[in-house]
Amino acid sequence: SQSNRNAKLVLLGDMGTGKSSLVLRFVKGQFLEFQESTIGAAFFSQTVSVNNATVKFEIWDTAGQERYHSLAPMYYRGAAAAIIVYDITNSDSFARAKKWVLELQKQGNPNLVMALAGNKCDLEDKRTVTAEEARAYAEENGLFFVETSAKTAVNVNEIFYEIAKRLPTT
Ligand code: GDP
Ligand code: MG
Question: Is the shortest distance between the CB of 25 and ligand 1 below 6 Å?
Answer without folding.
Answer: no
